[in-house]
Amino acid sequence: MSPASSHDAVFVARRRFFDEGRSASGIVAAPILRSWERCAGQGLDVSRSPLLVPPTAHELRELQERHARLSRLARPELDALQGDARLTGSVVIVTDTAGVVLDMVGDAAFAGRAAEVALRPGVSWNEAATGTNAIGTALVERQPIAVHGAEHFFERHRILACAAAPLIDPRGNVAGALDMTGPAAIRHVHALGLMRLAAEQIEHRFFSEGFAHCMMLRFHADRALVGTPREGVLAFAEGVLVGANRRGLELMKLDWSAIDHAKLAALLPGVRPSDQIQPLRGPQGTRLYGRLLDPARRPSRGGATSARAKASAAPSGEIEPILGEEMQASLARAVRLVNAGIPLLLLGETGSGKDVFARRVHAESERCDKPFVPVNCAALPEGLIESELFGYEAGAFTGARRQGAPGLLRQADGGVLFLDEIGDMPLSLQSRLLRVLQDKQVSPLGGGKPVPVDFALICATHQSLSTLLAAGAFRQDLYFRIAQYVVERPPVRHHPDRLALVRRLWRQLGGETAGVALSDEVERLLAAYEWPGNFRQLVGTLRALMVLGEPGQPVDVSALPAEIRAAVPTFNVVISTPPTSLAEQTRSALQAALDASDGNVSRAARRLGIDRSTYYRRLLKEKDRCL
Ligand SMILES: Nc1ncnc2c1ncn2[C@@H]1O[C@H](COP(=O)(O)OP(=O)(O)OP(=O)(O)O)[C@@H](O)[C@H]1O
C-alpha cells in the first residue's frame, strides 16, 4: 500500500469507526483496530486530549533507579541506535512494563516536540491512558507494532510515527518496550525491523544475569548464528526449563507454558554438555546446532562466556574510565580543590566524561562517604526545578507533598552537589542559587526558616558559558562563583592516539579475554571516525560489536553502523531532512551549522554569516519555541 492510500484508508476507517460506529475491519491493520476497540470500550473519548502528568524530578529519579537493571541491559542498543535516530530526526525510547518512559535518546529537536505531547521520561504511554500508540499497544498485544499518524487514537498524537517491540523476559513476562518515534511526516520504513532486532538483542542479554547456576542451551537451525543474539536460548535448572527466549521456544516448537514444565531429557534425549557446537535433533527430526553449557564446567573467571556476558551486561558507568597521565594530574588537582571547598566547572562536549570525572573526584575526595547528588538542570521541568532544588514547606503550593520536601541542595549536605547542564538553569533560579552559595543556607519555598548547608559544588556544561554570558542568559556573578577552577574534558576526536584508545577500551570491555577481536579494517575505521557522541558513543559502539562478535572470528566491517562505515558528516545528513516550517528551517540551519562546527558557536555563526550574539539570540528563541 502506498503511503498516500494508506493515509486515506486510515481516515476512511476513522470516519466509519468513530463517527458512524461501524466496523473498520479490513481497512486498517487488525491490531490497530483491536486497540481502537479496547480504547473506546474503556471509555476513552477521542475528541478529548489525554491527561498525562509528568513526574517530579524526585519521582523520575526513583523510577529510573527502580528500573536501573532494565535501562542498563538496554543501554548498548540505545547507544547503537542513537546515530540512526539522529539521522532520521527521531528518538529511541525504553519503557517499563506499564509503558512509562525510562530512557530516551536521539534527535534533540524532535525530543522537544515529543515533550509537547508528553512523550518524555517519567510519563506513561500505556494504552489505557494514552490510547492507541506503538508502546502501549505493543505491550498489550505482546508483539511488535507500528502506529503511524492518524492511527493513533488521540488527535494530538497524529504528529508521531512510532514503532515498538515488547521486551519479553526469560520467564515470558513483559519486561518493557523499546520504541522508535519520529515525526509522522517522515516515513522511517526500517523502524519496526530495527526495534524487533534490537529487542531480540536486549532479550538475549537478559540471560547474562541470574542464570549462572543453569545449564544453558544456545542453538539455532543455522550453525553460523549460534553464539549471536539471533540464537535460541533455553535455561534448565535440574533438567527443567526455567527460562527461554522467543527464538528458543520457536525452534523447539514450544510456547511460554513450557516454562517450569518441559524437561531437557525429553526435548533432546541423550544430549551431553559441550562447549563445542554440536548437531542436535530438534522436534520432528529438524536439524539444529548448538552448545549445551554446564555451569559446573563453565569457567568462572576470565573464560570466554563469562567475560562476554560480563562485558555486555556491564553498565555504561561501570567501565573503568581511561584517564591518561594528564587527566590523572587534573583529577588530583580537582580533588585538592574540592577538599579546600573551591567549586569546579567541567566543560566538554556531550559524552566526553564530565559526569564520570565528577563522580571520580567525589570518590577520591574527603567527602567520599557522604552523598554525591547529581542534578541535571536540563532534565528538570522548569516549573519544578525550584522546589526540587531548594525544597519546600508543607502545603507550600498546590500539589506539594503534605510533609514538604528537603530539596536536593539539602540532600547533598556534607557531600558533593553536581549541577550538570548548569547552562540550562533559568535566570530566576540562578540568583537563588547564588544566594545559597554566598550564605551557605537554603530557604525552602513557602517561607520556612533558612537551613545551613555544607556541600562541595561541581558544575558542568557542554555549552559555551561565555556565549551565554554575552547573550545575557547566564549571570556573571554566578559564573565567577562557580568557575573558580575550570577543567576541560577534551572530545575523543582530539585524542592524540585514537587507535590506542579504541584498543584499550576494547580490552577494558573484555574483548581480549572473550577471544573476540576487531579486524584491522574495523580498527582503522573506528580510529578514523570523529565520534560526535564522544566516549558515550564509542563505548556503546564497542559494546554492540562485542555482542555481534564471535570468538576466533575478527569482527568485520559489515558489523559497523552505517554512519561509521560511510563516515557521513552529520551536517549533510541533518540538512537533508526536509524542514516543514520557517521555524523548523531556522532551527535546522542553526543546529546543522553548530554540528558542522563541532559545537563551536563562533564558527557556526560565521558559517551562517551572522554574528555570535545574533546566533545565540536565535538559538535561545528557537529553543523556547520548541520546549
Ligand atoms: N575516560 C573515560 N574512559 C572510558 N569511558 C568513559 C570515559 N569517560 C566517559 N566514558 C563513558 O562515556 C559515557 C558518558 O560519560 P559521561 O556521562 O561522563 O559524559 P558527559 O560529558 O557527562 O555527557 P553529557 O554532557 O551528555 O552529560 C560514560 O557512561 C562512560 O561509559
UniProtKB/TrEMBL annotation:
It comes from the Bacteria. The keyword rRNA-binding does not apply. Residues 327-547 form the Sigma-54 factor interaction domain. The keyword Metal-binding does not apply. Keywords: ATP-binding, DNA-binding, Nucleotide-binding, Transcription, Transcription regulation, Two-component regulatory system. Residues 296-315 are annotated as: Disordered. InterPro entries: AAA+_ATPase, AAA_lid_NorR, GAF, GAF-like_dom_sf, Homeodomain-like_sf, HTH_Fis, P-loop_NTPase, Sigma_54_int. Residues 301-315 have a biased composition (Low complexity). This is Sigma-54-dependent Fis family transcriptional regulator.
